[in-house]
Amino acid sequence: METKRPYFIFFTSTFILFFSACTEINQSVSSVELSKDSTRRAPKAKAADKSMLSAIMGFFDTAQGQQNSEDSDTYAIGYLDSAANNLFTIPIDTFSVNPYGFQKDELISYPDSVYQQRFNNITSDLELTYNSHVENFIDLYAIRKKDLTERMMGKSMLYFPYIEQVLMEEKLPQELKYLTMVESALHATASSHMEAVGLWQIRYNTGRWLGMQINDYLDERRDPYVSTQTAVKYLKKLYSMYGNWPMALAAYNSGPGNVNKAIIRAGRSKNYWKIRKYLPSETRSYVPAFMALVYLNRYSKEHNLRPQLPELPFQAVDTVRLYHEVDFEELSDVLALEQEHLEFLNPALTKKIVPASRDGWPLVLPLNKIAAFESEYQSLIAGYVSDDEIATTAQVLKQRKEIVPNAPDLKLIEHKVKRGQTMIGIAARYGVSIRQIRDWNAMHDNVIRSGQSLKIYVPESQYARSRY
Fold first, then answer.
1. What pLDDT does residue 106 have?
2. Within 13 Å and on the Cβ side, how many CA atoms surround 233?
3. Are strands 410-416 and 361-366 parallel, antiparallel or unpaired?
4. Which residues on neighbouring strands pair with residue 362, listed in sequence order?
5. Which residues contact 334 (CB under 8 A, 6 or more apart)?
6. What's the farthest any 2 CA atoms get from each other in the chain?
7. Is 427 helix (H, G, I), strand (E, B) or coil?
8. At what angle do helices 281-298 and 112-121 cross, to 10 degrees?
9. pLDDT for the residue 367
10. 364-397 pLDDT tens trace
11. DSSP state of 369
């Protein structure tokens, strides 16, 4: 079968990772380099009287120092927009016992000296730095928003195998995959207050500049495959511009223009920590948040973080090519597949419609639905007439006028044609002839299209029954 994207490999890898995570408790773990005496268990969080927004805004006020409230509001709202995703996150706890004896609901933090030593031990090309800004975000993700972090870690098993593959092909650091956690909390359809969209939160102008398709029916920023390729190539360009990753990440978040202005204001320094105070507030938080997540993914067990795996109704997928327009509702009915699953697998199709395509649109389906699609394909496209067919068969005919019957006992019904319906079937349903339908609608032939409205006249005694 012809395919466009390696989704089969992608989701098969996901299943393998899923199985590995579920059995990890039976494996031995390496001993931590620090004694348990250096660990302190943070007090359990009390039930907050404030809303989530108020709480997180308060934290950002602390994390970002002396900022005005407008900057703090902007970053907090953007963060929550990206993080608010509950689709397919019914938690499957991957660890029944923590290797260090922590109970499931215990919150763990460490002294500065421990954090510093661990950062020194992380081998990376990303120039990771530990300081108070990074510590604030470790506290946010490991304690204040522990549940969000665990859900992100679980969802990473869906997307990271493919992201890792692209990063490896482009010879970029694997840790860059954690940007999707900062950007969107791994929510493929996330949208921020700045109108950035998708896993990688790509803005409209940036996406178009990078060659992405964005229109009424399609938004490739929401496609995990296309957006990953695009974002990784963009990151590679930014790294070549600035020569170090903290600066490249700042440019990814706020744009090269803001970074270049900050460089000038900082005396032409290209050290992120020196230009940081001249950057927009969100970017001042962006790089420390990323470094905190790199650390926490490396030391998740030490912080009692337990990935909550998404419970998916499928384990592998493949693509089929669909050349004609079909909406998700009809696909769902014909394939006996939940519409929300179609939406999850095809997030780039913003109108929930597969558009007509000369080359064939690669529709992603669960592997166990491929055979059903092949057998039902003809019913899905029944009644469809392509533009080419119309252009090559068009004939100029004398204009016809609609014939309105003058019988007083006839009632008008507006019938909307559904995909797969034929003139024969519609005529039989209402007990009329095909010729009558053609006369009532000024039609030259029997060609009908999905969505077309037909005027049908039926006896008053049959009117109520015929409408349903």
1. 92
2. 12
3. unpaired
4. 321
5. 372, 376, 379, 380
6. 94
7. helix
8. 80
9. 86
10. 888 888 888 888 877 776 655 455 544 454 454 5
11. G
- Distant-in-sequence, close-in-space partners of 434: CB < 8 Å, separation ≥ 6: 423, 424, 427, 446
What are the Cα distances from residue 464, in Å, to 390, 425, 432, 459? Answer: 36, 19, 16, 10
The helix-helix angle for 52-63 and 132-139 (nearest 10°) equals 160
Is the predicted pLDDT of residue 231 greater than 80, yes or no? yes
pLDDT in tens, 253-263: 999 999 999 99
> From the CB of residue 196, how many other CB atoms can be counted at a distance below 10 Å?
22
3-state DSSP call for residue 243? coil
Q: Tell me, what's the pLDDT at 173?
A: 96
Q: What is the pLDDT of residue 444?
A: 76
CA 302 to chain centre: 29
Task: Please count the other Cβ atoms lying within 10 Å of the Cβ belonging to residue 226.
Answer: 20
Element (H, E) at 438: helix 434-440
Mark 262-271 as b/e (b = at least 16 C-beta within 10 Å): bbeebeeeee
Compute the chain's Rg from CA coordinates: 28
What gap in Å lies between CA 252 and CA 237, rounded to an integer?
A: 10
Which amino acid is present at 200? Answer: W
C-alpha distance from residue 225 to each of 140, 233, 354 (Å): 29, 13, 17
Q: Find the mean pLDDT for residues 350-358.
A: 85
CB 269 within 8 A of CB 278: no
Residue type, 163: I
Nearest to 130, CA basis, from 112, 143, 152, 104: 112
**Do the bridges between strand 107-109 and strand 361-366 make them parallel or antiparallel, or are there none, so unpaired?**
unpaired
DSSP labels for 28-69? Answer: --PPPSS-GGG-EEEPPPPPPSS-HHHHHHHHHHHHT-S--H
The answer to whether 260 and 269 are in contact (CB under 8 A) is no
Q: Which residue has the tokens 């660890």?
A: 95
Tell me what the mean pLDDT of segment 46-70 comes to.
37
C-alpha pair distances (Å), 229 with each of 159, 181, 210, 441, 463: 13, 17, 10, 50, 56
CB 267, CB 113: distance < 8 Å: no
